[in-house]
Design goal:
By secondary structure, the chain is an alpha/beta fold. It has 11 helices and 14 strands.
Amino acid sequence: MPNPTVHVIATGGSIAGVGPDRMDYIRYPEIGDHLTIEQNLARVPEISDNFNVIAEDMVSVGSTAIGPANWIALAERIHAIDRDEPDTAGIVITHGTATLEETAYFLHLTVKAGKPVVITGAMRPPTSISTDADLNLLNACQIAATPESAGMGVLTVLNNEIHCAREVYKANTLRVETFMPNELGFLGYADSDHRVVFYRRPYRKHTTDTPFRVDGMTDLPRVDIVHAYAGADGMLIDAARAHADRTGQRIGLVVAGFGAGTFPPTFIAAAESAVAGGMPVVLASRSSAGRVVMTPRKDEQGFIVSDNLMPQKARILLMLGLTVTDDRQAIQQMFYEY
């Protein structure tokens, strides 16, 4: 039986980083050199032994440099692979971990391909002692080639753990176990016996069940995030409004508050004024778990609530929601469904 075909798209990041020596774990991002995906793959001959790999370098940057234009290009490339390579079992994207969760959630909402899409990265560059780059890349190929991965939406894997793109977030600055799944748990393992094992499925709608189509776009509506803190006032919210007025851009805002969505009085007053001026504003939380729920007061003020999406994920959903509608209730329903 022939080996399954996996198409790997590389974007740079720590998984391709080149440090000055084997003891370096922190300087390599400042140096900025990267291996090509072919060089990454050559480090792990077990991948070519078990998979027919098609590989390409889309960009070669740290993930701090990746944003909406790259997201759209990735979605379009995935659609082209799905259309033009019917024998490809799945698609792997290598990516820096800094913004991996954001790229993953964007693709989770926009990809209309039936093939599995798996994103991986590394916390230690391939030039370092005890790098996690090699095993993460192998695991990603295993997951992408596994038929059970289809229909799960976009998946991420680091440290053997498979996560749903909606829920995963980076929780540690340096450790290899950095990716966490909110409070809901990860989906399964790419385990030590070389099996891919799933224990649960994502429930919220994704990929082919969303209305978001970005092929042909060049950018997305601007949405900024403003964090609340003790003593915060409305200055940054007012600045966002002023920018919208000055540029004529359609701008949305996510405000990250305390606990279940509370804010300093002058801060929330500025946010309410922004809503009255026509700006969509989503209330999210600085907490890493739990929901921000609608109340009669918040509804009267015209806010949208984030449900349990973290601010960086709420921003992406609002950006995409604004490509479909300006209706607040319709966008609120998206936060309940996706």
